[in-house]
Design brief:
The chain has 4 helices and no strands. It starts with a helix and ends in a 29-residue tail after the last helix.
Length: about 160
């Protein structure tokens, strides 16, 4: 290879390396933002609490097992409460929409449905998905099994 082609090769390799670095930075930044703004799950909170307790209280193995049972039960109860509250919110939004829809003329109902669709799409975009799946195992999440959407409006 002559000197010019070696420089071109080095320049191409540097460009590829730079492009890879920029791509990696973009992906890492996006993932960090998603993680920073995502609410922790009850199981994650329980694990963190368990780790802090073990580190600071020097628990015996028996205490650790008993505390694990308590934390697991509490985590399940919190998750159930969250599901119940989410269901109630969806029902309230659905009832609200039905009441508003009853007051509107047919042409306004069409526009109202468009407004609701935009709101639902915006909500889904903020939540990180639009196909009704929670992204962990591909199954529909409990909030999406009914005929209501993520924010509670009834799908038609």
């Amino acid at each position: 290879m002559n000197g010019l082609s070696k420089w071109k090769l080095a320049l191409y390799l540097a460009a590829i390396f730079l492009a890879g670095g920029v791509s990696g930075w973009v992906v890492a930044t996006k993932m960090a933002k998603e993680k920073a703004f995502k609410a922790p799950q009850p199981k994650e909170i329980a694990l963190s609490f368990r780790d802090r307790m073990n580190a600071k209280l020097n628990l015996t193995p028996e205490q650790g097992r008993e505390i694990d049972v308590i934390l697991d039960r509490s985590s399940a109860e919190i998750q159930a409460l969250h599901g119940e509250n989410t269901k109630r919110i969806k029902q309230d939004i659905s009832a609200r929409n039905a009441q508003i829809n009853a007051l509107l003329m047919p042409d306004q109902q069409v526009l109202f449905e468009e407004i609701e669709k935009e709101r639902r799409d915006s909500w889904r975009a903020k939540r990180g998905g639009s196909d009704g799946r929670d992204g962990k195992d591909g199954r529909k999440s409990s909030r999406d099994k009914n005929t209501t959407n993520d924010a509670g409006a009834t799908n038609r």
